[in-house]
Amino acid sequence: RHSSACTLMPAPAPLRCLLIDDEPLAHTVLRAYLDRLPGLATWAGSCYGAVEALTFLRTMPVDVLFLDVDMPGLTGLELLRALPQPPAVVLCTAHAAHALDGFELGVVDYLLKPIRFERFVKTINRLHAGNGAGIPAGPPVAPAIAPEPAVDSLFLKTDAGTERVRFAELLFVEGYGNFVKCHLASGRVLLTAETMKQMESQLPAGHFLRIHKSYLVNLASVERLSGNLLLVRARELPVGSTYRQDVLRHLHLR
Length: 254
Description:
Blueprint: E1 15-20, H1 24-35, E2 41-47, H2 50-59, E3 64-68, H3 76-82, E4 88-93, H4 99-104, E5 109-112, H5 117-130, E6 153-158, E7 161-166, E8 170-176, E9 179-184, E10 189-192, H6 196-202, E11 208-212, E12 215-218, E13 222-226, E14 229-232, E15 235-238, H7 244-250
Parallel strand pairs: 1-2, 1-3, 3-4, 4-5
Antiparallel strand pairs: 6-7, 8-9, 8-12, 9-10, 11-12, 13-14, 14-15
């Protein structure tokens, strides 16, 4: 006979968190947040510089690093590159400029200071979900690029005729008076008598984003956000003030 009793799964162990930041206030805030999440996360230690953290990690394994980026001596990103087998990493900084560098290094999340408690909770949930604990995760940490559209290209009229351009090959669109320039991955630039508004309506919204009155970018081509400049294949494009919040939202930096 089969027993009707339910089998209870053991609760996940609290995440051991190391705080690495040169600002004492940052430690105070995150320690207070960890204290509000008993059973989910626990404080394992505090380091006020990257070299101190390297020494700590040699003798004390942890599950998560809450890592500041801008620190004197050795930056957080330099520390991360120096670790042969880093634990899960959450970058914490007042600047969004290093977000895509963090993505390339495989960080779990990116928290912008001042860090809100509800945003911190989403990070802890994501960390547990990554460990298979079954806690629902927040949105993925990556540029918000939608699934491939059913239509993968558009036709542009140029002086040479009508040309098919695949979305994946189109890096960005630049306003040029009564025309637009379409910059392709091959290095070619196509000039077409379309308006920015017309181009925006023809491009899949989950893949292309208006960042300025004169620029539309392919999100898959974005390499870095530095201040108000977006790097797209070695070309720095300005982010307009009215578009900035939408850019941050799509890059999950807000």
